[in-house]
Amino acid sequence: MPGMQLDTASPHDRVRAFRPAHAAPPSTAQGSFRLLGKDYSIRFADHCELLRTRTSELVERLYAHRGLYASHAHATAQTGQTTLAACDSGGEVFGTLTLGLDGATGLLAESLYGPQIDAVRRAGGRVCEVTRLAMDPARSSNEAIARLFHLTFILARLVHGMTDLFIEVHPRHSAFYRRMLGYREAGPECICPRVGAPAVLLHLPLHDAEQRIRARGSDRSLYRLFMSEDEQRALAERLLCPTALLS
Fold first, then answer.
1. Is 227 in contact with 213 (CB distance < 8 Å)?
2. 36/16: higher pLDDT
3. What pTM does this model have?
4. What DSSP assignment string belongs to 18-42?
5. Which of 4, 12, 77, 153 has its CA 20 to 30 A from that of 51?
6. Rounded distance, CA 180 to CA 240, Å?
7. In this structure, are strands 184-192 and 40-44 parallel, antiparallel, or unpaired?
8. Residue 73 CB contacts under 8 Å (≥ 6 apart), including other chains
9. Which of 10-14, 94-98, 172-176, 238-242 has the lowest mean pLDDT?
10. What is the per-residue DSSP string for 175-194?
């Protein structure tokens, strides 16, 4: 297209530019952090006992409603994990997900899809995953879902320098993630023992998500509801500077 500039750098090389070499690790412990939306806010739950309890209760309730076993509903906060909580104006949690970074024990999804994830890792990818995703359909909105996933992208890509995001979903939900967020199917249908139901592995190269964010509004996906690049940059800078979260 006229005026378009091509970015020819490798996605795995380009990610180095997102995080200064000597940047302090991001802090998600500050209770004052809020990402504000229309009648809701998104907060970090890891270091707030009340939010941890409410996110666990939400996961347990919504999974049970679908006949799923939420063995991981009350998982304790761990290094390399960040749990986000979408709260209404009264402070009730209506949505949550956990971003898990690769570490010594790998990703949870590797219990079923180890070869698929390790192939990305061996190719130079820095892998991470979304787990414990739950959205109350009676109270959530497309905007809230979009903001939750945009903050996940910012944390994974711009703050932690990850390149590839995985998620296990029920096969009947796969089309939604592929259509609305650009995920690709990466592993066959299996029975996930953590929930006692079928699952498929989906993979989102975060460079692809970055391109979709730049083209925000050009399709009917959830990316049209993401924040602007200026807002994204400002939020990433805020998360990379823990002292700013106190303001």
1. no
2. 36
3. 0.84
4. GS-TTPPPP----TT--EE-SSEEE
5. 153
6. 28
7. unpaired
8. 56, 57, 59, 60, 63, 132
9. 10-14
10. HHHHHHH--EEEEEEEEETT
Tokens for 241, please give them. Answer: 């500077």
In the chain, where does DSSP find H-type helix? 11-14, 49-65, 110-122, 142-153, 174-181, 206-214, 229-240
| Amino acid (1-letter code) at residue 49 | E
Place of tokens 């709260």: 87
Domains of the chain, residue spans: 32-246
pLDDT of 15 higher than 50:
no
Nearest to 189 by CA among 181, 180, 198, 197: 198
pLDDT over 90 for what percent of the chain? 68
- CA of residue 48 relative to chain centroid, distance: 19
Residue 106 CB burial class (10 angstroms; 0-12, 13-18, ≥19) = middle
Q: What CATH number is given for 32-246 in this structure?
A: 3.40.630.30
Question: What pLDDT shows up at residue 6?
Answer: 30
Whether 86 contacts 140, CB under 8 Å: yes
The predicted structure's pLDDT at residue 71: 61
CA-to-CA distance for 128 and 149, rounded, in angstroms? 13
Residue 138: half-sphere exposure toward Cβ, Cα within 13 Å: 4
